[in-house]
Amino acid sequence: STLKEKNSLGFGRALESILASERLPFSCLRNITQTLMDTLKNQELESIDEGLLQFCANKLKLLHLYESVSQLNSLDFHSDTPFSDNDLAVLLRLDEKELLKLQALLEKYKEEKTRTATVRFSDDKDGVLPVKTFLEYLEYEKDVINIKKISEEEYVALGSFFFWKCLHGESSTEDMCHTLESAGLSPQLLLSLLLSVWLSKEKDILDKPQSVCCLHTMLSLLSKMKVAIDETWDSQSVSPWWQQMRTACIQSENNGAALLSAHVGHSVAAQISNNMTEKKTVLGADSEALTDSWEALSLDTEYWKLLLKQLEDCLILQTLLHSKANSPASKPSSLQAEPLPRLSVKKLLAGGKGGIADSVAKWIFKQDFSPEVLKLANKERDAENPDEPKEGINRGLPEVSEVDMNLGAIPDLLHLAYKQFPCSLELDVLHAHCCWEYVVQWNKDPEEARFFVRSIEHLKHILNAHVQNGVALMMWNTFLVKRFSAATYLMDKVGKSPKDRLCRRDVGMSDTAMTSFLGSCLDLLQTLMEADVSRDEMQAPVLDTEDAWLTVEGPISIVELALEQKHVHYPLVEHHSVLCSVLYAVMRFALKTVKPLSLFDSKGKNAFFKDLTSIQLLPSGEMDPNFISVRQQFLLKVVSAAVQAQHSVVKDKESSEEAPSAPFGKDQDWPVLAVDLAHHLQVSEDVIRRHYVGELYNYGVDHLGEEAILQVHDREVLASQLLVLTGQRLAHALLHTQTREGMELLARLPPTLCTWLKAMNPQDLQNTEVPIATTAKLVNKVIELLPENHGQYSLALHLIEAVEAISTSL
């Protein structure tokens, strides 16, 4: 007995080893297995090893199946039946309009997918499987063939061996189905293999519409097999057979192939249901049974309709996500180069209410076009629904700067997606997700300042103040306040704009990135204040979901989270906004000897970096004059630096090296901001305005100075300041040049004027090249501003004489 077992084991291993050989031809493998089996059968009854005999029989059955399939695939079979669009419409139970729509969607999908797809050469081996591999994949047990645990790729290879030629009309579908069923493969297993091939070979299928007809035939044949559709299934429930097919479509990331197979499944299911109903009618089934069958039909039909809508939506979304602008607005970063995950209905259903907007926001981040593009694509939607109220306020947003960049099909595809998802891709929802996506990506690499700038642009485009308030507050708490406080303490410690190394160490970004960061923080805080004011004028939005996506589950969406946020405490946001303006000015103009926190008293300092929704004790009443003085000096410094940055004439290279670089994005109107800060810091606004006018004249931009005078209240004090500046200009013209004509002219002037001019210091002038005619206009402006009883009025009149004399002499 032991010897018999050893022999059997040896024979079994030897056969396995032979069958695993890659070199032996198929006929040789079959003959060896057959010979071994015949030998075993011819042994005496008591010495036959049943296990080994069964092993040989099973392998032989698999070899016969392999041979049958290979023969069917090698026959010169071609389905020459012409196949028109009308035939396709009939086959899929669609009218002409529905078919045209389906074809147009698939064509767009194919176009955009082809543009982004990596080159795939046609695989000549599709449908070919070595016998060794075939035997490794399958096992025979109790007259049933099962598939071993194999990878997805191997599963597709096995399915291709059975069905690829059939789907191409190059092998008889009827013969193949009969062969596979006779061999002991269950219809459920065959359906699974068929769908795995169909869904994975999308490109080939979309290029050959006739394959739809082949799939229809194949599916009809599989569905008619025994135990495919259980005729006794509870008519109140869903057919497990069709549910299996729908599940495969739901999980597939090849949306074009999935949508086509769902149309085929829906058509075959309807055809079979109709046949069953007719059969029952002919057999005279009672009315209750008929009603049951119609209810079952309607339940399954509803599931098919829902799936078709979901797949169509998914296809449109995936088409959009494949599309690319022809010329990107800027060089993409490594974060923008990461590929997007592919979509499936299953993924969208598990992505939560914001899953659809989130996937589009990730695509927008990679394209990096202006938020205005989203608005433009939506204009057609507005034109289609002119009666819909437009909530919110337009904050004077700039027109698209990137419209001249070639967007290709993007606006049309966006518009189509908006129509398909009126709730999920509502503009505020989309802007909120874009805003969040950009700030998340910026947080990964804070050197990419433009991401944060773009995030704020999307934030400003959100029209509903409730959503805007919530998103801004979440951004502040999640990504900004920690870095903002680090920047404050660093700048206060060094007492000036910190060097690059310190910024990187303490705040986690370079000095230039930190400048932009503070500018964007200021934008965010100002937007938060605007939203807080606007919120009372409008209602919070109702977040609806499209009917096809009501069963969506998963994480809470950004907009839902935003609407859960508390109201901010406006004065506390304003308090942070003042500090942010101070920090931004110090960095923007590389100011020295400024400790930002020294501008605030202890109450003011304690309130910083606290939760913006909390009530904090803030400075109130009269401020200590020492604080006012420090604040005023700071604001005057900012105005001087702002005018210098805009109007300075670079005199030599040394001074240009110190000049701060302009920030990324649009710069602030600093003089206006300084006046606004003066109001918050209890500094006289008029002092700041007068200083601004003086600085404009100092830099020789008299035309702007003249405009700025209109904002000044105390023009008498301003006139005295401008009088000194005029004296400096004339002193430079007469004394600094040291010409003979100048000296003679000086001698002819009244002694008091001459003495006054000699006391002037022209070195304070930033621009000494101002034409004398321009200075003459300034003198007239000073006389216009001074009252006649003013102590310096006569001096101003003398200046007119001096200017006229210079005009004619020099």
Automatic annotation (TrEMBL):
Pfam family, one: RAB3GAP2_C
InterPro entries: Rab3GAP2 (IPR026059), RAB3GAP2_C (IPR029257)
Domain Rab3GAP regulatory subunit C-terminal: 190-787
PANTHER family, A to Z: RAB3 GTPASE-ACTIVATING PROTEIN NON-CATALYTIC SUBUNIT (PTHR12472:SF0), RAB3-GAP REGULATORY DOMAIN (PTHR12472)
Protein name: RAB3 GTPase activating non-catalytic protein subunit 2
Species, as recorded: Ursus americanus
The gene coding this protein: RAB3GAP2
